C-alpha cells in the first residue's frame, strides 16, 4: 500500500521485509530471503530462545482459547500441589527394580564431555538425553557458540559442559 491506495509490486523497487529467523534463513523454501537480502540483519534472540524463556516464565503454560478452539472430549490435567506429596507406588514383586522406569527417561550417571550430532538432533533433545532436562539446552548452546541452533551440523562433535 502506498499512501491511501494499493499499488502493484514494482519488480525494480526495494522493499523492507520483517520476518522471523526461520524465514530469514530460507525456511519453507523461501530461499530468496537468504540469498537476495540487501542490508539484512538478525536482531535479537532466536525464536526458539524467546519461546523457551516464555514457557519457563509461564509454567505451567495454559493456552488461551478465546472460544476459538474446542475440545471434543475434555481432559482433566492434574495440577500438583505444593502441600500434597504423591503416594509411593506399591511394590510389584513381578517387576525388577530397573523396570520401573524406561531406560530412555533416565539421565546418564555421568555426563560425557562431547557428543556427536546425528540427523534430526536439536539442542533440546540432546539436553534431555544428556542432562535429563530439555531446559538445559542453553548450556549446550553457550558452550558451542559457533553452532547454529536451527542447523546443527550432522557428524560434528559438540562440547558438553558438566551438569
TrEMBL record:
Residue ranges, annotated region (Disordered): 81-107
LysM domain sequence ranges: 113-160
Short name of any one Pfam family annotated for the protein: LysM
Xref: CDD domains: LysM
Source domain of life: Bacteria
SMART domains linked: LysM
InterPro entries for the chain: 5'-Nucleotdase_C, 5'-Nucleotdase_C_sf, LysM, LysM_dom_sf
Protein's recorded name: Nucleoid-associated protein YgaU
Amino acid at each position: 500500500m502506498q499512501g491511501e491506495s494499493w499499488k502493484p509490486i514494482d519488480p525494480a523497487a526495494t522493499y523492507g521485509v520483517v520476518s522471523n529467523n526461520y524465514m530469514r534463513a530460507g525456511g519453507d523454501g523461501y530461499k530468496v530471503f537468504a540469498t537476495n537480502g540487501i542490508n539484512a540483519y538478525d536482531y535479537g534472540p532466536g525464536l526458539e530462545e524467546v519461546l523457551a524463556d516464555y514457557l519457563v516464565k509461564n509454567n505451567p503454560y495454559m493456552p488461551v482459547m478465546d472460544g476459538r478452539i474446542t475440545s471434543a472430549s475434555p481432559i482433566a490435567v492434574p495440577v500438583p500441589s505444593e502441600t500434597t506429596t504423591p503416594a509411593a507406588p506399591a511394590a510389584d514383586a513381578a517387576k525388577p527394580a530397573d523396570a520401573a522406569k524406561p531406560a530412555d527417561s533416565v539421565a546418564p550417571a555421568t555426563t560425557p564431555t562431547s557428543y556427536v550430532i546425528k540427523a534430526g538432533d536439536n539442542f533440546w533433545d540432546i539436553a534431555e538425553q544428556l542432562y535429563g532436562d530439555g531446559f538445559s539446552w542453553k548450556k549446550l548452546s553457550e558452550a558451542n557458540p559457533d553452532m547454529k541452533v536451527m542447523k546443527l551440523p550432522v557428524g560434528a562433535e559438540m562440547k558438553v559442559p558438566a551438569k
